[in-house]
Amino acid sequence: MTSEMRGVLVVDMGTQYTQLIARRVREAGTWCQIATPDDALKTARSMDLGGVILSGGPSSVYDEGAPNPDTELLNLGVPVLGICYGMQWMCQTLGGSVEATDTREYGRTGMRVDTAEGMFHGVEGESVVWMSHGDEVTGIPEGFTTHASSESCTYAAVADQARGLWGVQFHPEVTHTERGAEMLQNFLARVCELPGDWSEESIVDREVEKVRALVGETGEIVLGLSGGVDSSVAAMILDKAIGSRLHCIFVDNGLLRKGEREAVEAMFGEHMDLDLTVVDAADRFLERLSGVSDPEEKRKHIGYEFVEVFREEAKRFTNANFLGQGTLYPDVIESVAAHGGNTAVIKSHHNVGGLPEDLEMELVEPLRELFKDEVRRVGRFMGLDSTLVDRQPFPGPGLAVRCLGEITGEDLDLLREADRITTDEIEAAGCHTDLWQYFAVLLPVRSVGVMGDGRTYEKACAIRAVRSTDAMTADWAYLPQEVLQRISTRIINEVRGINRVVLDITSKPPGTIEWE
């Protein structure tokens, strides 16, 4: 079933939004795969292909070295949608013209649909779209007609309906395009005539099949179980695939939130009946991090030590030649140029980037191509407890990336207490239901305070609360004043060593959700 699933190829032309396009396609119930321009044709021919989407990108089509996939992509007999740069590349390739525009369009733009057919079925008239371009199509290829325009862009949307070729200068994948989801759904269902059969059930079936094919009849998997939703859903998929040949390892690295270890032991060891081993490795992780203050170095040291623990534990099993991880798409995007594309590296993740050559274990990552919302839907489908499914994400490196600068056991204790108070107060007030993450950060600065008529010179902590859907972007959340006041008062009164609490009001971008 899963290997024959008909889907769409998304060609990454260098935009940061390629994965967002993929997410929107899946939300519409269609499986998709991503490839670089160089690999696009080969990947397309390996798929049960129903359509192609060419992403936007920062280049100009007339630049030397600009993304330039094989033109045969336009002759595969399936519909093609070009977005922004993708539209410009398609039009130029087919004999149209592209030039730098005198009036650039960035941000919300009014657009008028004149021909409400195909991907614009039911979307006639005026609406707001999101533009981001300095070039535009100035002449369309033979066979194309105009479907929409804006005040500054004559060819905001064009199509050769006979060949199934569509191009839009705006970005339907972003939420700022008012009817973008409807347009993409029309392209998938009406133009590509895809069945919309990408669901939680098909995701599980597909991943279980892939795991069984990779591991075989006797292979065993050692899974790093953190207790978060990602590794928990990964554990359930792997358990469904190979049963007792899955061995879960929970590493207490000394970088956990308060009560984390006890909660994981209770949930997975007692209630879910998984083969769970808890490894107390706090001392070795803290020793490894001694003197390290650079955030990238922290992540690399933590990743190395995790692998070493798993290497040691795997020796207990006869055929444990596979290492399972709960890696998600956003982890991959921020750590490396996804699929070899042109996107910039933001930060490394401890569970991304491959394994040491001498480990002799192969990675098994059943969630690597999924976004967080998809993982949560799969968790609910598989019966995972709602308190775990809806739990806020916790970074793989743990409190190491929330304790800025060099890490000490004393500072971690301060942060644990401040974070517990922050979490308790936000959840007690019911503010957490629409938040993506909410936590405390210990800052490597001291400030003067006054307590009991005496001078203090202690550390500061920051409160971070954000709203997001996939961690690709995030908006800071302004919590009620009374909640912030309770958090501040309790931290100052109960955590000896912190005398100042500040609020982080930075969105992503330009910041990241975590401070390191």
Describe the model.
The chain has 14 helices and 18 strands. The chain is α/β, with parallel strands linked by helices and 516 residues long. The protein has 3 domains: 2-191, Class I glutamine amidotransferase (GATase) domain (Rossmann fold, 3-Layer(aba) Sandwich); 200-389, HUPs (Rossmann fold); 408-503, GMP Synthetase, Chain A, domain 3 (2-Layer Sandwich), CATH 3.30.300. The chain has a 9-stranded mixed β-sheet with strand order 2-1-3-4-9-8-7-5-6, with helices on both faces. It has a 5-stranded parallel β-sheet with strand order 12-11-10-13-14, with helices on both faces. Strands 15, 16, 17 and 18 form a 4-stranded mixed β-sheet that branches. Helix 5 packs across helix 6. The longest helix has 20 residues, at 295-314. The two termini are 42 Å apart. The model is unreliable at 336-347 (pLDDT under 50).
What would a concise description of this structure say?
With 516 residues, this protein is of the alpha/beta class. The protein has helices spanning 18-27, 40-46, 85-93, 180-191, 200-215, 229-242, 260-271, 282-289, 295-314, 329-335, 372-381, 386-389, 409-428, 481-494, and strands at 7-11, 31-35, 49-54, 80-83, 97-113, 125-139, 145-150, 157-160, 165-168, 221-224, 246-252, 276-280, 322-324, 362-364, 437-451, 454-467, 475-476, 498-503. The model is unreliable at 336-347 (pLDDT under 50).
